[in-house]
Amino acid sequence: MDQAGVLRKMKNNGVSPAIERKRYNGNTRVIAITSGKGGVGKTSITANLAYIFSKMGKKTLLLDADTGLANIDVILGITTKYNLSHVLRGEKTLSEAIVEGPGGIKILPATSGIRGMVELSKGQKFTLLEELDELDEDFDFMLIDTAAGITDNVMYFNMAAREIIVVVSPEPTSLTDAYALIKMLYQDYKAKCFMLLVNMVKDSNEAVEVYTRLSNATNHFLGLPIEYLGHIPYDQNVSKAVRKQRLLAEIFSDSKASKSMFKIIEKLCLKQPKDYENGTIKFFGRSNIDKNR
User: What is the pTM of this model?
Assistant: First the structure.
């Protein structure tokens, strides 16, 4: 489907028959969006993908899993009364903390600057499990915006996802840190399904070059193939949207970066996830909490 077709489907709040047939067996499809290095545009990408999913009629929950330095609410320009810290302290339920954002996205905001939230304890993970179990609403997609790096929280939330999107930029440090993240998830946590999204490139040739460099490294040193999901070109409208605290796909839907994200959404909707043990809300269960502590 071309860009105009996707926009028509968004306006009609529907999806194409081909995409509808690919719905993941009625279960929530959990996708972590992560990076080895900060500053690669991961959070902005996550929020925009959630918005597009929601406008296409996919019920979408956006979980801000950067529990130390959350900023989904800042990007969206929303003020939240409650957040994940209130849930984990037992002060509010998950349903009470979830807010609605642009396009009907449901958002579970995190918090910033609270020491006890930087690394979740086993008890906090149990609380999150119980609250997720009690959610009444069924979601088509749950997008997890992880923190950058290789902390325990990053590992835990990545392993909650059947699919992991690793966001990189052309900077050498971004590639080095992405490799370290993939290596740890693969060797220590047995994650197997990685998709690479290359952000802030000048063109598709540069994106493929970046993917090839990282893919060659994971193939050679880890024996692990990674999938190329696509690229997002450098676009000045991205920073304009961030300054306005609005989503790029909402106010600059015809921009180069937005068009690339529409293509990525289409590819994800038509994709059949591989059946690994991790990657459903059930992953947050006790056995996996024990395994990852």
Answer: 0.86
